[in-house]
Specification:
Elements (H helix, E strand, L loop, with lengths): L1 H13 L13 H7 L24 H18 L7 E2 L20 E2 L1 H5 L3 H10 L24 H10 L1 H12 L11 H16 L7 H15 L1
Parallel strand pairs: 1-2
Length: 223
């Protein structure tokens, strides 16, 4: 993704279009492990860091993207009327129902053109942008350590990026919240290894019997 952004910057610069990179003052790791927010939950008093984001608390999006982008546009609005182009695709109409996405100064050209996510990816491939093949592995190229990834995408991360998977385990060992509601990263690894063993033996992995066997496997490993 960094390589992709570097290519875009070169294209914009060559065309005489200003290219600005925005970055939070603090890193993801700082917010996750070192930040000390005010705690409403007494059980979290004394714990450092925000820990893993969740569906209900997506602090990473707030702190590392929305607040940074909003601060940048806030300065621009002191001098200009800012028209912001948002990259929602035609098959993401549901996103426009959210109040935050109903700003009258936002434009959605992909929706206006009727371009779906598949159309956009096809166009990018045709013009030499392939993100190193990441879209052949993941449905969405989001943050590699995101706990909101689907189970198949986490399985692909474990299989194809063992170095990042080790980093993921180390990150969880440094924090107080489980990676997923039902699994730690270590437990996910046990599940994925167990699936591989079952498949090699010609056994199914999406049956009630599999889930019962997995439950016993996890219980054994926790003893």
């Amino acid at each position: 993704m960094v390589e992709h952004i570097n290519r875009l910057e070169a294209i914009f610069t060559d065309a005489g279009i200003k290219f600005t990179r925005l970055k939070s003052e603090h890193s993801f790791e700082w917010y996750m492990f070192d930040y000390s927010p005010k705690r409403r939950n007494p059980a979290l008093q004394g714990l450092k860091g925000q820990s893993w984001p969740s569906h209900n608390i997506r602090w990473c999006t707030t702190e590392l993207k929305n607040m940074v982008v909003n601060a940048y546009f806030s300065d621009l609005r002191k001098k200009y009327t800012v028209i912001q182009l948002i990259g929602f695709a035609a098959d993401e109409q549901y996103r426009l129902k959210r109040e935050a996405n109903q700003n009258p100064n936002h434009r959605h050209p992909l929706m206006d053109w009727g371009w779906t996510e598949a159309d956009c990816l096809k166009y990018c491939y045709a013009h030499g942008f392939d993100w190193g093949g990441l879209y052949e592995i993941f449905h969405r190229v989001s943050c590699w350590c995101c706990p909101l990834k689907s189970l198949p995408e986490l399985r692909n991360l474990w299989k194809q990026f063992p170095d990042l998977w080790e980093r993921l385990k180390n990150m969880e060992h440094r924090t107080y919240r489980k990676f997923l509601k039902n699994y730690t990263v270590d437990q996910l690894e046990i599940r994925f290894q167990f699936e591989e063993e079952r498949l090699a033996a010609g056994l199914p992995i999406n049956t009630r019997e599999f889930h019962q066997a997995l439950k016993e496997k996890l219980k054994e490993c926790n003893q």
